[in-house]
Amino acid sequence: MGRVVAKRVQVFGRVQGVFFRAFVRDEALKFGVRGFVRNLSDGSVEAHLEGDEDAVHKVVSAMRIGPPAAKVVELKEEDVEAQGFEGFTILR
Questions:
Q1: What CATH number does the domain located at 4-82 have?
Q2: Mean pLDDT score, 67-72
Q3: Are 62 and 47 in contact (CB under 8 A)?
Q4: 92 has catalytic annotation
Q5: Residue 25 bears catalytic tag
Q6: Is the dihedral of CA 16, 19, 21, 23 positive or negative?
Q7: Which of 11, 40, 45, 75 is the most exposed place for a label (fewest CB within 10 A)?
């Protein structure tokens, strides 16, 4: 296990209505990353990811591509404080 990190990631493009949140949840669960993902009113998707540095990096890398129907135009990533989430949730 590497060091624990937390990141806020916001993805822009065709990322709503294309199963992007479910895709992020599946990637997070696959790598043991905790947090949440949600749609924002501006049409972007926001995720809070925390866990092992390498695992978080893998989820962010997957988010740069997204599921087949998505078209990621931009991804913003910032370090944030870990909130101690357990599991990974899709927020409405």
A1: 3.30.70.100
A2: 97
A3: no
A4: no
A5: no
A6: negative
A7: 40
- Of residues 3, 8, 39, 64, which has the active-site annotation? 39
Pairing of strands 34-39, 88-91: parallel
Interatomic CA distance for residues 51 and 9, integer angstroms: 14
Within the chain, residue ranges assigned H as helices are 20-31, 53-63
- Residue pointed to by tokens 């479910």: 22
User: How many residues comprise the chain?
Assistant: 92
Cβ neighbours for 16, distance < 8 A, ≥ 6 positions apart? 39, 43, 45
Prediction pTM value: 0.95
Catalytic residue among 21, 38, 64, 92: 21
pLDDT tens across 19-54, in order?
999 999 999 999 999 999 999 999 999 999 999 999
> Cβ distance 50 to 83 under 8 Å?
yes
Token pair of 21 as six digits = 């949140």
